[in-house]
Amino acid sequence: MDANGGSKKDFSTAILERKKAPNRLLADDGEGSVVPDNSTVAITTAAMEQLGIYVGDLVLLRGKRRRETVCYALPDDSCPEGRVRVSRGVRANLRVKLGDVVTVNRRLDVPNGTRVQVTPFEDSMDGISGDLFEAYLKPYFREYLRPLCKGDTFMVRGNMRAVEFKVVATEPADCVLVAQDTTIFCDSGKPVKREDEERLDGPGYDDVGGVRKQLAQIRELVELPLRHPKLFQTLGVKPPKGILLYGPPGTGKTLLARAIASESGAHFVVVNGPEIMSKMAGESEENLRKVFEDAEKLAPSIIFMDEIDAIAPNRDKTHGEVERRVVSQLLTLMDGLRPRAQVVVIGATNRPNSLDPALRRFGRFDRELDIGVPDEVGRLEILRIHSKDMPLADDADLERICKDTHGFVGADLAALCSEAAFQLIREKMDVIDVEEETIDVDVLNSLRVCNDHLKHAMEV
Ligand code: ADP
């Protein structure tokens, strides 16, 4: 109860709450009367009316990690209320899973493309030869004016096989319609490698577990100012320039910083403390200067300083000339950051008290977040994240494992999952022939990680 007798609402994680707006719909799958493909989505007629969308209008869809794409909207009254039916391909482009929020807005100004460039995925071309353009792209784009956005991928079925393409470039805008006079370049010489694509993405918020409160704080302190500088200008306050994450190794400090960068679309640079210190005299300072200069150029940016205690130890307690110079350089650089530069420095350390106190003053690293060892609930969240792509047997009891892993940090739990998988592989060595080129599909399909594998991994 507060002084006025009302009960106080806790706003500490308000940033994580979903906003309710009619154009924020939940992703639903494509089963139904209208089956959405790469270029269409379906919503109810009531939702269309509410959002001012007419049948066949183009809509801009926004998903996670600032991903956007454009599709045609179709009516489908079998679609549940508050949902939008999106095909698997569109979900992948928006980086959303079923049940995630997709924002839908009518979009009228999509120009006809003059030129688009697409590249096939290497793994979807296995065993396919011949002219991809004639066999796949020409028929695919013949039917109607398909919208394409730069960075999208799309799947084309033909000749009993499906080939997946990535849109590498579009002109004259980032989203275009492929019309009759659009020139399609198909760069079949250099197919896209799946691993490269996945690496481009970086981790998202749902890859970090057990840090709900800290995630809310860091999003408020970093993502909000980077994405909406106006908000802070209007209120006349300066967002923090530096944030210190402290906690034992392997608790997810780096992961959290990376997730913030990829979800907010910020440029991300890592500065490794011990590495930068090992440089020749004068070089460390020059390197730091360069990092800050580039970050300002490529803003919005996040500079992540791992093991910052190695760069900036307490000047009173260190005798090293290099450290003294580097600390002063870092202070100068942080003080020199313009409030509107949209650059945030995130420092990570295991020993916050060994840091030079000058760095922790107002206007520098003036916010500190404790990323502690996760509790049981946190451990379960982390285990679920690391086992999400793992075929688990029915007896796999993650709750039990969480109870028995007191003191484990995120990195330990990630290692536990991979060790469990290795244990399963060891057991299956009698049916896996290392000398063979491929592994039998039946063997692959039969793999299940059981409770015993997890228990074994816990004890390693
Ligand atoms: P730190 O920077 O605190 O030393 P990292 O972020 O480098 O820790 O963690 C190493 C790895 O451990 C991560 O890449 C991730 O696989 C796993 N991990 C650590 N913490 C978490 C967490 N909170 N949630 C999910 N995975 C985690």
Main beta-sheet strand count, sense and barrel state? 6 strands, mixed, barrel
> What does the average pLDDT come to?
87
Rg from C-alpha positions? 26 Å
Strand content: 15-25%
Structural class: alpha/beta
Name the assembly state: single chain
Query: Which small molecules are bound?
Result: adenosine-5'-diphosphate
Dominant shape: globular
Q: How many distinct helices?
A: 16
Number of E-state strands? 17
Give the helix proportion (percent range).
25-40%
How far apart the termini lie comes to 50 Å
Which segments are poorly predicted (pLDDT under 50) over 5 or more consecutive residues? none
Strand arrangement within the widest β-sheet reads: 1-5-2-4-3-6
Write a brief caption for the model.
The chain has 460 residues and is an alpha/beta fold.
Can you put this structure into words, describing what you see?
- By secondary structure, this protein is of the alpha/beta class.
- It has helices spanning about 45-50, 90-95, 130-140, 195-200, 210-225, 230-235, 255-265, 275, 285-295, 310, 320-335, 375-385, 400-405, 410-425, 440-445, 450-460; strands at about 25-30, 40-45, 60, 70-75, 85, 100-105, 115-120, 145-150, 155-160, 160-170, 175-180, 185, 240-245, 265-270, 300-305, 345-350, 365-370.
- A six-stranded mixed beta barrel has the order 1-5-2-4-3-6. It has a five-stranded parallel sheet with strand order 14-15-16-13-17, with helices on both faces. Strands 9-10-7-12 form a four-stranded mixed sheet.
- The longest helix has 18 residues, at about 410-425.
- The protein is globular and about 75 Å long.
- Adenosine-5'-diphosphate binds near residues 251, 253, 382 and 410.
